[in-house]
Amino acid sequence: MSRTWLVTGASSGFGRAIVEAAVAAGDFVVAAARRTAALDELVAAHPGRVVAQRLDVTDVAAAESAVGELVERYGRIDVLVNNAGRGVVGAVEETTDRELREVMDLHLFGPAALTRAVLPHMRRRRSGAIVQMSSMGGRFAFAGVGAYCASKFALEGLSEALAAEVAPLGIKVLIVEPGAFRTGFAAAGTLRRSAALPAYEETVGPVRASLAASDGEQPGDPAKAAAVLLTALDAEHTPLRLLLGNDAADALSAHWDGSRAEFAAWEELSRSTDFDG
Ligand code: NDP
């Protein structure tokens, strides 16, 4: 049976690729973006299968009322994809309070609001899926990406708990963790950069430079990612987390090895803190 999707940040990159994959699977998609003009081509390419919805996910009240209107108009939302997002680079000390709050609004509070808004409808139907676009940066961090990773770690914590809460209600949660993919993510006008301090030139400087240089050269193909996402979503046992890309697989595997070794080196002391007896 054909499903109805709501995909945020659908005007570019992963969002657009997910819309194309859902349409190819025979589904109907509400493609959401801040600037609906950026969706014109996508809508025109799939008449009657894709409709555009203006939505800034950081406007929590608008996000909630948009979901209500969409459910009224289309009867249901089977799959919510919280995809809208952007790259942010800067040392923690360089990142202003405002910059930190902006990225939390975009990657945590917006998705949380949309999730809250769709859940009553999904619970009523005892079915549905929520896809959270995280990142390999939702599993580990490195210099220069503190604010970005804080927001994706927060999204992952929220979503892991959510998955346990809604599984008995018939609702799936899928956290997607891409490595570097060829989207608009690292484009000059998209990537947010905090004002640089000379103290971080050696640690954060190379990250700024390599992120900017990666634009158009990233190894990951968003169309392949979208196809794998659909496969995972359609599986009888959808994973909680889906890592995407060789770079992500290599980096996470190294991170696990390091975490395991650190845990082992300190395990005895970790276990020494309970009350005696
Ligand atoms: P793109 O820049 O290509 O797409 C981002 C999309 O998000 C755009 O459609 C943009 O639309 C939209 N967006 C940004 N801010 C808002 C907002 N406030 N409200 C609504 N829409 C908004 O990048 P990606 O496709 O790569 O990014 C999609 C997701 O993938 C993000 O969550 C990102 O963190 C994640 N990701 C990407 C990786 C990569 O290497 N590409 C790696 C790991 C994770 P607008 O034109 O309005 O700005």
Describe this structure in words.
With 277 residues, the chain is α/β, with parallel strands linked by helices. It has one domain: 3-Layer(aba) Sandwich (Rossmann fold). It is 47% helix and 15% strand. The protein contains eight helices and nine strands. The protein has helices at residues 13-24, 40-45, 60-74, 97-125, 146-166, 205-213, 222-234, 246-270; strands at residues 4-7, 28-33, 50-54, 79-82, 88-89, 128-133, 171-178, 192-193, 241-244. Strands 3-2-1-4-6-7-9 form a seven-stranded parallel β-sheet, sandwiched between helices. Strands 5-8 form a two-stranded parallel ribbon. Helix 2 (40-45) links the parallel strand 2 (28-33) and strand 3 (50-54). Helix 1 packs across helix 7 (222-234). The longest helix has 29 residues, at 97-125. It is globular, with a radius of gyration of 20 Å. The termini are far apart. The mean pLDDT is 97. The protein binds NADPH dihydro-nicotinamide-adenine-dinucleotide phosphate.
